[in-house]
Design a protein that fits this description.
The complex is a heterodimer of chains A (391) and B (276). Chain A is an alpha/beta fold and 391 residues long. Chain A folds into two domains: 21-133, Rossmann fold; 143-371. Chain A is built from 16 helices and 14 strands. Chain A has helices at residues 32-41, 60-71, 87-98, 109-112, 115-133, 163-176, 193-197, 203-221, 227-230, 234-238, 244-251, 284-293, 323-328, 338-341, 347-362, 368-371; strands at 6-10, 16-17, 21-26, 46-47, 76-83, 104-108, 139-141, 147-153, 180-183, 260-264, 275-278, 298-303, 316-320, 335-336. Chain A has a seven-stranded parallel β-sheet, sandwiched between helices. Chain B is of the alpha/beta class and 276 residues long. Chain B folds into two domains: 20-134, Rossmann fold (3-Layer(aba) Sandwich), CATH 3.40.50; 144-261, 3-Layer(aba) Sandwich (Rossmann fold). Chain B contains nine helices and eleven strands. Chain B has helices at residues 31-41, 57-70, 90-97, 115-132, 156-164, 178-187, 219-223, 241-252, 258-261; strands spanning 2-9, 15-16, 20-25, 75-82, 104-108, 137-141, 144-148, 168-172, 192-195, 211-215, 230-231. In chain B, helix 1 (31-41) packs across helix 4 (115-132). The longest helix of chain B is centred in the middle third of the chain and has 18 residues, at 115-132. Chain B is globular, with a radius of gyration of 19 Å. The model of chain B has no long low-confidence stretch (mean pLDDT 93). Classes of the chains: A alpha/beta (391), B alpha/beta (276). At the A-B interface, helix 1, helix 4, helix 10 and helix 12 of A face helix 1, helix 4, helix 6 and helix 7 of B.
């Protein structure tokens, strides 16, 4: 079958961007409002806000690697860092450079001397970087350029019957053609991990999948909490799901039938193409952030209840599991898989729709979340905020 | 003690020095839409990463945080914006406020027809809330000042001065940093805070109340001196508390502190358990 030609932005690292974003990244929470102010003036740029103010607590390594991975995502033409002027921030910038982000500007509050001067310098940086960006155009790209993240949120009883298996079909095709696909949300494979492990390319990968799930469960059980009592969530139950295992059996369908090439830690980058499992929380936005830090460049997000969210740097395609959600939330959902349950279309038809939508979005079509200007971001913490005090 | 034309009678919430309408996102997924609504009606809102993917005691911690914010004396009315499928449910959150007046409402994105219609409905709801909670001036009140003691500062003299001036004073020093301390002070219903933030930290802020930032002599603070309202050396002898007292009077009367005018202050809620 003839495939569409893909056109994307080549990066020096060998990876491909399907967007050419300029990211304003504050490396201290106090600079988040400045970052928002910059993108209000320069709407061609994107920014994130976060609540980390340099605490060197138990989650420091996770936060540093999330920020440096995010800052070096291949969808970024350049990153403009806003800093206070600390060595921790320098480490993050240095690490992002090692990961391929060599097109950056750092604007430091300590050097600028005031917030107003910081804004002036950041505005100048935006103008300079925007002028350079105009010179870069899309060129023909291989299928290996597609690094797809698989996500579901607000799942319901139809998730495992309509949208998730349809996405699985699209994911299998991406992998078959040389691209990569990553399943996340460890919470949502609990109880189904043995089925994924059985699809591992070798026993080592299978054992790793089982051990990641066990590690996840014990990291919650140590708090004296049984995750199986907290999942499925209330929204899931209202949507018709009865147990965590039922939710997991449906959630894993997003990963189709391809064999698992490997596993990834939160925000880790894959090296060779294939299907992977990444250890992420089920929290939609933490997962999106982990995918972006892992250098994925596009996400398909299936939803039963509907959500407006999207990554600020990875286009996030929303697929509804039921037509009622699609019809009532048309300005935030891109595709409807509910037609499968209605008997109007087959899984193969909708799988094909999702596959084609992925290619169109790779080539520049905007998702609903992009049109609505959504760009949620959240740092993932393995420990509470009060575990340790080191600074 | 304090009398001023700029005190607001916020009913059960008490008397405030600001008349903020709060658009409160009950979950990160609704925070962007909440901000859009707030911008349209000149209300305050804030981004956060909470409301879902939380278990154990964190559910109560976050519920308590949002409830304290909604009932803070500087708040006139609150519109809760939820997504619909999250752990912290908007309807239940508003029930927790136990308000018998018309000063709190909620809406849910999944029941409101999408992004743009939720913004439209939210703007109308916020306007109606404002109409049903007209500005009422208060003549006087006992105001509470919070001290964020994130760095070492012997606050005894300052405390004594403020108490003599008629303020109730609460201090927070147990948090990892100012973010934690300001949350604690918010729970203590402070009308404004004086922050002695860490020596390597920039000025702090909080969406609900003004924060007066006092700089130290450390390099970062020296480098960005103009971003602080006062220098610690200004407080070195008791006569100089007059300068701080003047500033407090002005801030109570409506003058914005520096971080307030620059809208500095991200919420970092205390968390006990990892996210799930």
């Amino acid at each position: 079958m003839n495939q569409k030609i893909l056109r994307a932005f080549p990066r020096a690292s060998g990876k491909w961007g399907i967007r050419n974003h300029i990211l304003i990244l504050p490396l201290h929470s106090a600079l988040s409002s400045a970052a928002r102010q910059i993108t209000e003036s320069f709407t061609e740029c994107v920014s994130v806000s976060h609540d980390w103010s340099g605490e060197a607590d138990s989650d420091l390594d996770r936060i540093k690697s999330t920020l440096s991975g995010f800052a070096s995502n291949p969808n970024l033409f350049a990153t403009i860092y806003l800093t206070i002027g600390t060595s921790l921030e320098e480490e993050i910038i240095h690490h992002a450079s090692n990961l391929g982000q060599n097109n950056f500007v750092e604007v430091s509050l300590a050097r600028a001397g005031s917030f107003d001067q910081l804004l002036t310098e950041a505005f100048d940086a935006c103008r300079a970087v925007l002028a350079k960006r105009e010179q870069q155009v899309r060129v023909e790209a291989p299928f290996a350029s597609i690094l797809l993240g698989l996500e579901c949120g607000g799942s319901d009883a139809l998730s495992g019957i309509t949208a998730n298996p349809a996405l699985g079909i699209a994911s299998d095709r991406i992998v078959e053609l040389g691209g990569s696909s990553v399943l996340g949300e460890t919470t949502e494979i609990l109880g189904a991990e043995h089925l994924l492990a059985a699809r591992a390319l070798d026993t080592k990968v299978g054992e790793k999948i089982i051990s990641l799930v066990a590690r996840y469960e014990s990291s919650i059980n140590y708090e004296g909490i049984d995750i199986r009592g907290a999942q499925p969530s209330r929204g899931n139950i209202e949507g018709g799901l009865s147990t965590l295992e039922e939710k997991s059996l449906g959630a894993t369908k997003k990963a189709g039938k391809a064999p698992f090439t490997g596993t990834l830690e939160f925000g880790e980058r894959l090296v060779k193409p294939g299907l992977y499992f990444m250890d992420t929380p089920g929290h939609d936005i933490e997962q999106l952030t982990g995918f972006a830090a892992g250098h994925l460049n596009i996400v398909v997000f299936t939803t039963g209840r509907g959500t407006p969210t999207g990554s600020p740097i990875m286009p996030t395609i929303k697929v509804s599991t039921n037509t009622q959600a699609f019809d009532s939330l048309r300005d935030l959902i891109d595709l409807d898989a509910g037609t499968i349950a209605d008997g109007l279309r087959t899984l193969g038809d909708v799988g094909n729709d999702i596959f084609n939508e992925i290619l169109d979005v790779v080539n520049g079509k905007l998702t609903k979340a992009e049109i609505n200007g959504h760009g949620e971001f959240s740092l993932s913490r393995m420990y509470g905020t009060k575990i340790s005090r080191l600074d | 003690m304090t009398s001023s034309a700029n005190l607001f009678d916020h009913g059960i919430r008490g008397v405030g020095i600001r008349n903020h309408q709060l658009v409160l996102p009950s979950v990160i997924c609704s925070s962007h839409i909440a901000s859009r609504i707030a911008k349209e009606v000149d209300a305050i809102s804030f981004l956060h990463q909470h409301g879902c993917g939380i278990i154990g005691e964190d559910v109560e911690v976050i519920n308590r945080l949002f409830t304290s914010m909604a009932l803070h004396p500087n708040i006139s009315s609150v519109l809760v914006v939820g997504l619909g499928c999250e752990t912290i449910q908007s309807r239940e959150l508003v029930d927790r406020f136990q308000l018998e007046d018309e000063s709190a409402r909620f809406l849910v994105i999944q029941e409101s027809g999408g992004v743009n219609s939720t913004v439209e409905i939210g703007v109308q709801a916020a306007i109606q809330l404002k109409t049903s909670t007209p500005i009422k001036s208060a003549n006087s009140s006992n105001l509470t000042i919070g001290l964020d003691l994130a760095r070492d500062y012997d606050s005894q003299n300052l405390r004594t001065h403020l108490e003599r001036a008629g303020f109730r004073v609460v201090a927070a020093e147990s948090g990892i940093n100012s973010s934690d301390n300001l949350i604690e002070l918010m729970h203590n219903r402070v009308h404004l805070a004086i922050s002695f933030t860490g020596p390597s930290q920039p000025p702090t802020g909080f969406p609900l109340f003004p924060v007066i930032n006092i700089s130290s002599e450390n390099p970062l603070h020296t480098a960005i001196q103009d971003e602080f309202d006062l220098n610690q050396s200004d407080l070195s002898d008791s006569s100089d508390f007059a300068q701080l007292q003047n500033l407090i009077d002005e801030v109570v009367a409506g003058k914005e502190t520096i971080s307030e005018s620059k809208k500095i202050g991200e919420i970092r809620a205390p968390r006990m358990v990892r996210s799930v």
